[in-house]
Amino acid sequence: MRFIDEYRDEATARKYSERLHAITTRPWTIMEVCGGQTHTIVKFGIESLLPKEITLVHGPGCPVCVTPREMIDKAIAVASRPDVLFTSFGDMLRVPGSSRDLLTVKAEGGAVRMVYSPLDAVKIATLNPDKQVVFFAVGFETTAPANAMAVWLAKRLDLKNFSILCSHVLVPPAMEALLSSQTHLVQGFLAAGHVCTVMGYEEYVPIAARYHVPIVVTGFEPVDILQGIYMTVRQLEEGRIEVENQYARSVRREGNVPARQLLSEVFEPTDRKWRGIGEIPMSGYRLKGDYAEYDAEKRFEVGDIEAQESPLCIAGLVLQGLKKPHDCPVFGTHCTPESPLGAPMVSSEGACAAYYHFKRVDLKSQI
Amino acid sequence: MDEKTSIDMAAGLACPIPITDYKSVLLAHGGGGKLTQQMIRKMFLPSFQNEFLEPLHDGAVVSFNGVKLAFTTDSYVVNPIVFPGGDIGELAVNGTVNDLAMCGARPLYLSAAFIIEEGFPMEDLWRIVLSMQSASRKAGVSLVTGDTKVVDRGKGDKIFINTSGVGLIEPGVEIHPKRAAAGDKIILNGPIAAHGIAIMSVREGLEFESRVESDTAALNDLVSTMFDASKDIHVLRDPTRGGLASALNEIAESARVGISITEDRILIGEEVKGACEILGLDPLYVANEGKLVAFVDPDAADRVLGAMRRHPLGKEAVIIGEVVPDHAGTVVMKSRIGGFRVVDMLSGEQLPRIC
Known about the structure:
The structure holds 2 protein chains of 2 kinds. Chain A has a 6-stranded mixed β-sheet with strand order 4-3-5-6-11-10, with helices on both faces. In chain A, strands 2-1-7-8-9 form a 5-stranded parallel β-sheet. Chain A has 2 domains: about 1-310, Rossmann fold (3-Layer(aba) Sandwich); about 315-365, no CATH class. Chain A is built from 15 helices and 11 strands. Chain A has helices at about 10-25, 35-45, 65, 70-80, 100-105, 120-125, 145-155, 170-180, 195-200, 205-210, 220-240, 255-265, 295-300, 315-320, 350-360; strands at about 30-35, 55-60, 85-90, 110-115, 130-140, 160-170, 190, 215-220, 245, 265-275, 280-285. The radius of gyration of chain A is 21 Å and the shape is globular. Chain A is an alpha/beta fold. Chain B is globular and about 55 Å long. In chain B, about 45% of the residues are buried. Chain B is about 30% helix and about 25% strand. Chain B has helices spanning about 5-15, 35-50, 90-100, 120-140, 195-200, 220-230, 245-255, 270-280, 300-310, and strands at about 60-65, 65-75, 80-85, 85, 105-115, 140-150, 160-170, 185-190, 235, 260, 295, 320-325, 330-335, 340-345. Chain B is built from 9 helices and 14 strands. At the A-B interface, helix 1, helix 2, helix 5, helix 11 and helix 15 of A face helix 2, helix 8 and strand 14 of B.
């Protein structure tokens, strides 16, 4: 399959692995920002192809994982209402709130439906005029344009029975929050290719300069990731600090201009709580101006729901790259994909679930 | 009732699955993954315990006067009832025929029980009956008994079908997941994941353009061809719901052996691969209805593989891996790019990813 097979080619992967071994002279710690990249890294066993000096830490770029528990509680409160038909991407359904998850709400008779696109939720709203249709708008800049389009369309259609529960988050403020912490270990970043497809990468230039970290915009196939790591290590070894674009087949410097215009029409930045990290200033989107009437949090008055995270879960440290999932005392024991304590164990993009599924035996010893 | 009796009663009736985990049954309890396993092991197995149930094979193997029979049952609730490449009737015959074939048995007799929702169009029922007739003829089995129930409108979902089956196991054939042994070659009869994707492509709310057809097929004739080539087949399994990954994990767990497979040997149709990429699904966990994996003694592997390739349902058969002495209970896969990963059992339903 074009754009897939050539980026999963063993010979090309081996070439980048060999080049990396050739140029690496000392230990480097690199964070891949996006959960999709974490997934590829563990699914294809990429760490087994890297020089031992290179440590990958898995960043906060899984939208499911960083959605705070109170937002799940809000979703559950809305979805449990008899007048609501609640729609969501599949991943979010199994994320534990304080007492249960959305799949349990469904099992108990709540109208919870999985959709593949927010536009499907708009269609469901037009077909079910007697129901309040709510879409759980979760995600980074990648999913934001489609969600903005859904709200834009609902407004054009004058739909009174559609709204979104908005938990959008933004990558650059999270990277800055991480880099300004005293304890961080990150020396280079693989930036998330799909986020940059929408937003471009100009906003990363001042971050690279201010915090002295190379940033390489990277794709999601195994060869993309190996090449992104190679480009980052080459910068580090040569003492360069730049923003480079590995994912040029998809990312332009200015991003997708019409998508960005739509985003700035529908959304505006706001402070946002991240699971395990806490509140980061201006790190999320909320509905702007006239579009605010489509905000489910306001429509169903769930804004003041608060929740406590599990005291056993170290998701915050994992998401900041300070701990590996298996450093957690409850990893694989009290916290498993069947009964997750923290969100990174739920989504297949979550670092903990990825480790649980793919890395339970020490594979390096077998190679 | 004195106090002690009531306490004993309560203890005896307490649900063995921690109520704190799940107060009600979730879809994932029927998904074939870890939650299904948990329900079987904690609830069904201890309640009905006997030597025939305990192996948790695709069917039970029982003996009468030296004659070995396989006995199995399965219910079919597929939605939609007609899908690209088949319908619920064909599936109900093939599925139970395959469960018998996976016990090493020659399927002989089936029963069919229908639970039909009031208002179901007679024409649709007729179509299902005809396709069951055609499927059972093709598989060489007779449908010898049955039952019909109709439930109130809204109390069922169009039609559910249960089929049970009995088959004869020839002398010398011994198929059991525990027989997987280090060195065994693992043969897969063709490209995976077509059934699950065919169903998903026509499900309400998920329509996408696709030419993928279900691979539903009766595998008994292929299996009998394989036995003609050699009786040294240790394990047979049809990777239905939960996909290839779950089937291999169940065998690794049951025989306490390690399984090692190679990703680029596992065939996946281009259309199926594309759909999996778009939906964020791992084809290793997507359902099949006409696929089997065979664990074959290394000395017999080439003969069995050759026989399979001459059969229409095994033309694309390949050896995808082998049983190894290391990492007992775990399936490890060499990825397409040469890295290694564990292929785990699925916890719940496979949920499409956000991005």
